[in-house]
Amino acid sequence: MKIALDAMGGDFGSDPLVAGADLARRDFGTEVVLVGDPELIRERLRALSLPTTSFEIVEAKDVIDMTDKASDVRKRRESTVWVASELVKKGHVQGAVSAGHSGASLAAAMWVLGRLKGVERPTIGTILPCGPSRKSSSHSPTSSRNVDHFILVDGGANVDCKPSHLVSFARMGRLLSRHLFSVEEPRVSLLSNGEEETKGNELVAQTIALLRGRGEGSGKGEPFPWFAGPIESRDIFSGETDVVVCDGFVGNIVLKEAEGLAQTIMEMMKDAARSDLRSKIGGLLLRPALSRMKKRIDWAEYGGAPLLGVGGLFVICHGRSNALAIKNAIGMADRLAASGLTEALRLEMAPAGEGKEAG
Hints:
It contains ten helices and twelve strands.
């Protein structure tokens, strides 16, 4: 696959972006197109001892700053995120990746690539780690599920949502789980303050009604068989489900809390392991296991979050992305492009009579 990378976005300049592109090229065989200031990109390639002919470079004369408004991107069509989106639209590349202004990335993808028919709001599908399921139920993992991550939709694109938006997120998140993790029958849960369907606010109650086929806008007026019901926040990391659905305000809080808690726990474990001689010895013995655990919860291991519901593939990365995160985000874009995710979403979300349902 051929993937465009915004080589100017991110908090740490172009070095980790260019280095990540080189890792993706070497490790995955991905052809990466660097978008940005050609002179600066070649300078960074030389600084990293990489041949300036290693990558195709497409010029973009502007960069949307983190302090700029996301809506500014529409007037700034020479910006990196706009040019990267146009490369996807023209078919020059099969996907785009950016660690720059996430709001500008979302806006550029929507305006350039457009929304898929049947999608009211695009959503961000964020990948988070989970453990083995603690419960045995009809929704317990089967042999077809052998992954240690789940998908949270929405990860922050839509602060205020309607019930129909959440139903749309559920359908798109389910397809992402199938295409990214090869889960044959992904289970989808709705984040609430209790497992009982009588709990939750009005948004949760109306969304459950739609997913159960009891409300207007529920598709065929039939229940979605893959809906596993409400889930409490304490259970979302336990492996109970494959997709967790919520509005973007709640989802972004969950995402940042998870990142902060993971970092805090690792620091606490390090401090405990250094507290006395016995702990130091135990810490040395546990080091391989702790390294595996750290890798499992490190967001850089999956790199980014795909934007679902637009007419092309666009992966949004954390502004603090290092070379490893960029490499893995490009790898994710490569895999999803090869899997045909965008076309599957188009078929799934098409209004009745305009397309065959994708499952």
